[in-house]
Amino acid sequence: MSPKTDPQIRTVGVGGAAESTDMVLNIGPQHPSTHGVLRLRLVLDGERIQHAEPVIGYMHRGAEKLFEARDYRQIVMLANRHDWLSAFSNELGVVLAVERMLGMEVPERAVWTRTLLAELNRVLNHLMFLGSYPLELGGITPVFHAFREREELQNVMEEVSGGRMHYMFNRVGGLKEDIPLGWTSRARQGVASVRSRMDVYDRLVLGNEIFRGRTRGVGVLTPEAVHSYGVSGPIARASGVDFDLRRDEPYLAYGELQRELKVVTRQEGDCLARFEVLLEQTHNALDLADACLDRIAELEPGPINQRLPKVLKAPEGHTYAWTENPLGINGYYLVSKGEKTPYRLKLRSASYNNIQALTELLPGTLVADMVAILGSLFFVVGDIDK
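== NADH-quinone oxidoreductase subunit D ==
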């Protein structure tokens, strides 16, 4: 079999012959151009990528198996870690699944507070990528702005939950405890402060001709590929796939926020479109957070959780709860045998599906565009490996 047809063979050419030979290049598993411990196996013909294979599993921690050995309270601790930038949203899917199995009604105060915190968590997630993506393309300034804005909101999240990254604030039946006195006004100030400085990304990043030159028309993902690979979230919407669970299958309080909710889409499907969708979604998440704060201010004082038995057991059966996490669709398939631990809890994470699209995006592109394409998929490696 010739080196041209067998990607396992590495051929090294000498002199002018090197122009017509293939080379297998490993990016990672430890490499500054990757988001964590990811390995990309590329087959190159000169400077052009012929074949790309994402090799995953270097961070695999067996979360799904560990779910089976933890009770429904302890699972929350494991669930919020696979996408460490979306911890609150990860917790949410688990408790929603268990509550659905129990047929449990959550207090209205908890529903609106959960929605608020989910949108603040969305902003925190998106700010990380709004800062780190230009950094990968050589622009160092935006990441300093992004971390300043993140700090404003992380202070708010830390005050209410006690955690900076892994909040552990959701409980089956509601939230761990009520929000502190005066917290809503501080949250409102944090949202306003971040919003007042968001134009940095419009001017400094989107207005930069070098950034636009590196991203426009690069890494175009078609709607057909989106459906084939199960891509979701901002990446899918940047390719014209108009789907958002908050609008299409409302959960929490999103059914009452349809006027404020804006599902951002683009048709181009390139790296620039993906960044634009992420930026517009961040603006909208801040608007949704303000709407939640307004609604919470109108609510009468009341409980924020349900009283639970000392040993919580879900009835026998199965259910699937999916949510629109910051990076895309996150789903939990829960199977219960009536015990205090799940018989099976299958996780469908956004990054796992999204990263598979690299096999479609990278072939035919130049090595120089690889980092631009890779960074525009906005993934977390723990969310891939689970």
